[in-house]
Structures are given as structure tokens and as C-alpha cells.
Write a structure and sequence with these properties.
Radius of gyration: 14 Å
Strand content: over 45%
Distance between the termini: 48 Å
Number of helices: 0
Low-confidence stretches: none
Mean pLDDT: 87
Order of helices and strands: EEEE
Largest sheet: 4 strands, antiparallel
Strand order of the largest sheet: 1-2-3-4
């Protein structure tokens, strides 16, 4: 049995996608420009996290364009 430990929080305003890849946590969050409506962020932030010393630590962060919806 492995004990659970609170390692941290990722601020996302409620819009957050999370995957585990290669032993790391990969979070995808929306980035809204000044004129973006709430439905449609112009970019996404993709951040990678690890847990070190029982703390959640961001190791990388990059911005990518929001994918266009399929017709």
C-alpha cells in the first residue's frame, strides 16, 4: 500500500487536461488573449510536472496554437 501525499495544485480556472507520460504529469490549459471569448482560447499552455521531495514542480512549459475544430 502506497500512502497518498498532497503534492501541489495546478491553477487552471477549471479548464485542465492532465495525462501521465513517461512518469511525468503533462497538463494542458487554455491561454486566453484579451479579446478571446471564454469558449475559444487562442493558445494552449502545455506544462510538464514532476514530484520532487513531495512537491509538484513544473519542469517545462510551452505555448501551442489551439487546434482548429474539424468540419
Amino acid at each position: 500500500h502506497v500512502p497518498f501525499v498532497y503534492a501541489g495544485h495546478i491553477d487552471s480556472a477549471g479548464h485542465l487536461g492532465v495525462q501521465v507520460s513517461g512518469g511525468k504529469l503533462v497538463a494542458t490549459l487554455p491561454y486566453y488573449a484579451a479579446k478571446d471569448p471564454n469558449c475559444c482560447p487562442s493558445k494552449l499552455i502545455v506544462a510538464t510536472y514532476t514530484i520532487r521531495n513531495d512537491k509538484l514542480r513544473r519542469t517545462t512549459q510551452r505555448m501551442i496554437p489551439t487546434p482548429k475544430p474539424s468540419p
